[in-house]
Amino acid sequence: MTPESVMTIGRTALEITILVASPVLLVTLAVGLAVSVFQAATQINDPSLSFIPKVLAVLVTFALAGPWMLTVMTDYMRRVLTGLPGIIG
Asked: Which of 6, 13, 57, 58 could staple 31 via S-S, CB 3.0–4.6 A?
């Protein structure tokens, strides 16, 4: 196993992680920003007001993007595991 192959596997793993996590993080960011603007405009500072919409948005995002996320992760693991004999020997 060469250092280049280890770096390639690690870089690809980080890319897949960012790719899979980005929909949830972007939706959470957008909902958090919208709730913050609403709280600033109405001067309502209730912590549950920012928590509940974020949780609902994350659940909806997982429901919509979950199959795609699972497919991306499964394809990556399949590539890693099928290429493992070539990497080791």
From this structure: 57
